[in-house]
Amino acid sequence: MKEVLQPGPAEALSSLLDVEMPDLERDGLPLLWHWFYLLDRPAQADLGPDGHPVRATIPAPPEPGRRRMWAGGRVRTLGPLLCGLPATRRTEVLSVQEKQGRTGRLTFVVTRHEIVQDGRVVVDEEQDLVYRDAASRPAEPATEEPEVPVAEGEWAIDVSPTLLFRFSALTYNAHRIHYDRDYVRDVEGYPGLLTHGPLQALAMAEAARRRGSGGELAFDYRLVSPLFDHQGMVVRAEAGADGTVTAVRDRHGRRTATGTVRSLVR
Ligand SMILES: CC(C)(COP(=O)(O)OP(=O)(O)OC[C@H]1O[C@@H](n2cnc3c(N)ncnc32)[C@H](O)[C@@H]1OP(=O)(O)O)[C@@H](O)C(=O)NCCC(=O)NCCSC(=O)C[C@](C)(O)C(=O)O
Predict the structure, then answer these.
(1) How close is the Cα of 223 to the center of ligand 1, in Å?
(2) pLDDT at 143
(3) What pLDDT is recorded for position 181?
(4) Hey, whose CA ends up nearest to atom 1 of ligand 1?
(5) Which end of the chain, N or C, is more open, meaning fewer C-beta atoms within 10 Å of its C-beta?
(6) Low-confidence ranges of the chain (pLDDT < 70)
(7) Relative to the CA of 132, which ligand 1 atom is closest?
(8) Within the chain, what is the greatest distance between any pair of CA atoms?
């Protein structure tokens, strides 16, 4: 897949999260902003009941009826990804692994994505996708613990249906768990709309960028528990032993994602 990168998707993301626009032709796209470019555009006829493509896609679901979730990933930025120039994405399945989790049978599918610009790989990424059994027990809804006030240095994001919808639109993601409340409750058994894994990862990367992270970076992250739209989203980033340690929690203090951003320049 190849396209000339335009500023439009980056501007849309900047408006969505109210984050600073970089100089896209000089410094390139910040960490994870490549997710708004080089998108798959599956045919409507190829979408399955959950809104994800079931054929002519990488990865294809392991079996019909499995519940797809974004579990984590590892991203390396190896050079600037500049707007105004063409870029190419290559994607392959690296591994498929069956595991038994607390919530039931899990199939982890790891995909690798390389973005090439001007003859060199500038983004090298692995994404961990997990497929739950339809019959598995969904993650428990949060208990009504008291709210934990937003501390200094934390970033509170209002997770509203419009935020989730606009993020889905920006990534051309038709997965119904993010916008179809009847489907998510009646079919997948969750108590609310699910906040995208990529949105939480991006918020963590942006929290690190606010602290000055930039250049060639490695970002490893995990989605550890589902975050529903009525639970808020609070992001933090702080200096750790090995880089910038980031996390997402809900407004009651339950952790939903963790990650570490490291500089690749020593
Ligand atoms: C992932 C879930 C199902 C595991 O659920 P669990 O609690 O049953 O698992 P576990 O008992 O903690 O662990 C079982 C095994 O899985 C591994 N494992 C456990 N977690 C991970 C992880 N994150 N990444 C990689 N491996 C993981 C873990 O290390 C262990 O391996 P082992 O047996 O070898 O020791 C559970 O933690 C969960 O629900 N996490 C939140 C997922 C989420 O909310 N994602 C975002 C929304 S979905 C989305 O954005 C989608 C999108 C954008 O539309 C899209 O389709 O592209």
Answers:
(1) 6
(2) 65
(3) 98
(4) 71
(5) C
(6) 137-143
(7) 3
(8) 53
For residue 55, what is the DSSP state?
A: S
Cβ–ligand 1 contact at 130 (below 6 Å): yes
The per-residue pLDDT for range 31-57, each reduced to its tens digit, is 999 999 999 999 999 999 999 999 989
> Virtual CA dihedral for 38, 44, 50, 55, nearest 10 degrees?
-70
Nearest CA to ligand 1 atom 50: 196
CB 56 within 8 A of CB 47: no
Contact between residue 145 and residue 139 where contact means Cβ atoms under 8 Å apart:
no
Tens of pLDDT along 4-25? 999 999 999 999 999 999 999 8
User: What gap in Å lies between CA 231 and CA 251, rounded to an integer?
Assistant: 6
pLDDT for res 56: 87
| Class at the top of the CATH hierarchy for domain 2-263 | alpha beta
Chain length of the chain: 266
> Does the beta carbon of 225 sit less than 6 angstroms from any atom of ligand 1?
yes
Q: Kindly list the domain boundaries of the chain, sorted by start residue.
A: 2-263
Question: In this predicted structure, what is the pLDDT of residue 138?
Answer: 66
